[in-house]
Amino acid sequence: MSRKPIIAANWKMNVTPSEAVTYLDSFLGTFKEAVPVDIVIGASFVTLPKAAELIGPNPAVSVAAQNMSHEASGAFTGETSAAMLNDVGVDYVILGHSERRSLYGECDSVINKKVHATLAAGMKPILCIGESLEEREGGKLESVLSEQLEGSLADVSAEQMADIVIAYEPVWAIGTGVTATSEQAQDTQKFVRSVLEKLFGGDVAGATRIQYGGSVKPGNAGELIGQPDIDGFLVGGAALDPTSFAEIVSAGIAG
Ligand code: PEP
After folding, report:
1. In a domain, 77, yes or no
2. Which atom of ligand 1 is nearest to the CA of 235?
3. CA–CA separation, 214 vs 236, rounded Å?
4. d(Cα 174, Cα 183) in Å, to the nearest integer?
5. For the chain: N or C, fewer Cβ within 10 A?
6. Ligand 1 centroid vs 233 CA: distance in angstroms?
């Protein structure tokens, strides 16, 4: 089954609104027309309105938030709702990133509520899953990933899966410069797809886009995207430079 690759920048807590102007001026110069890859810019809450305004109705590039509250509104100081993200033109919401899980204690049941709130608001979750090195070396890779998928996707329907992207990000490869080998990433993503098949059936599993994330760079993107179960990337560090992110996107287009 052919799946359109999706390549997303996760700027994390970097790139101010003013810096986004410089970045996007450079990046959008390269990507104005539709390309055979969906490109996503994941910006901080304060940078999102500026990024969405600069990107505008671009056929290739859309905007992602990096987190969201599952609550609709009310007394939740410091939180940001789906309606607020919708209002500024957000298309995707990155959920369950390992930094949210490890630094802010987000568990699968909270992530599941956020997945449902994102879908209900007409936006698309990019659901992150991944194992620690200790879990991989302790033989727990498959049980950890299965648990994360089952918990985060509880009560999601097969139809709703059309709007969900999975990002497989081994925690030991995020921001460390250590990339999973293309074989490790492929084997694991094939396993992730098999879990999706158990949960939602073969058609959904075959249609779901699964990104790889973890120290993706221009130098390794080509080999990784050549793997049959890798349908794009979630990119942190290397996406902070517009030229390097553009090179990664170009590797995705070259396929
Ligand atoms: C990430 O933040 O999701 C990520 C994969 O970071 P990096 O590319 O820096 O490893």
Report:
1. yes
2. 8
3. 8
4. 17
5. N
6. 9
- Which residues, at least 6 apart from 196, have a Cβ–Cβ distance to it below 8 Å? 149, 161, 166, 204, 205, 208
- Ligand 1: centre distance to CA 213 (Å): 6
Tell me which residue has tokens 């789906």. Answer: 82
Residue 30 lies in a domain: yes
> Into how many domains does the chain fold?
1
Say if residue 93's pLDDT is above 90. yes
Q: Is residue 71 part of a domain?
A: yes
Mutate to test the pocket of ligand 1, among 94, 131, 174, 233 (most ligand atoms within 8 A of CB): 174
- Token code pair at residue 152: 């985060």
**% of the chain residues with pLDDT over 90:** 94
Read off the pTM. 0.97
Do residues 32 and 58 touch, judged by C-beta distance below 8 A? yes
Domain around 204: 6-254
Residue 1 lies in a domain: no
Give residue 175 CA to ligand 1 midpoint distance, Å. 5
The 8-class DSSP code of residue 213 comes to: E
Say what the pLDDT of residue 33 is. Answer: 87
CATH number of the domain where residue 131 is located = 3.20.20.70
Neighbours of 76 (CB within 10 A): 12
